[in-house]
Design brief:
The protein is an alpha+beta fold. It is about 40% helix and about 30% strand. It contains four helices and four strands; from the N terminus they run ααααββββ. Strands 1-2-3-4 form a four-stranded antiparallel sheet. A hairpin with a 6-residue loop joins strand 1 and strand 2. The longest helix is centred in the first third of the chain and has 54 residues.
């Protein structure tokens, strides 16, 4: 009887250890999967948001990254489409978007994720639209980036940004115009 009890205890303890190990691995797997999905939504979604704000092009793909309530209440997007954006007088051809994710937490059993990001647009390339040339500064205004606390929600298996609270403002340095090289004199023959 003593040997049977030891055998049962041995099997039960190994089964318990195995179950705990598998549970930890599954939890880690789903946590990594959620983190990767949130990272993609943040990087692609925030870049697309900046593109829409700068170019004022209607982008239905924003609905893939942002909740509809957020899109309707976002002051930067509203300003871009009502004509009060500082970029309305410019034809933006290119920009550089930098996103640094400082913290990101998504529990595998939760439908919400929170993160802190720093968004910057250090360079914007564009020209004044022809109807406004001579009336506005030819240098494109700098982007007002910042540190944001972002909340994401998982609905229907997809993560979407539902809240974006600005914690601090980052104003990029005004670009200095680069002088154009003067033509060199032709050497006498």
């Amino acid at each position: 009887m003593k040997y049977i009890r030891r055998l049962i205890w041995f099997i039960a303890s190994r089964l318990l250890i195995f179950t705990i190990a598998v549970s930890i691995l599954l939890c880690a797997f789903y946590m990594c999967m959620n983190t990767a999905n949130v990272y993609i939504v943040l990087s692609d979604g925030l870049e697309k948001r900046v593109e829409v704000i700068l170019t004022r092009e209607d982008a239905p793909e924003l609905n893939s990254y942002f909740h509809a309530d957020f899109l309707s209440a976002d002051p930067a997007l509203t300003a871009a489409f009502d004509g009060s954006s500082p970029y309305v007088d410019y034809n933006i051809t290119a920009f550089e978007h930098e996103l640094t994710i400082e913290s990101l937490w998504a529990w595998p059993w939760d439908d919400y994720a929170t993160c802190t990001v720093v968004e910057r647009v250090p360079s914007i390339t564009g020209t004044v639209i022809s109807s406004r040339s001579g009336e506005v500064d030819p240098v494109v205004p700098t982007w007002q980036g910042g540190r944001y606390n972002i909340t994401l929600m998982k609905s229907g298996g997809n993560w979407k940004i539902v809240g974006m609270q600005q914690e601090s403002v980052i104003i990029e340095a005004t670009p200095t115009p680069t002088p154009s090289p003067s033509p060199s004199p032709t050497p006498a023959a």
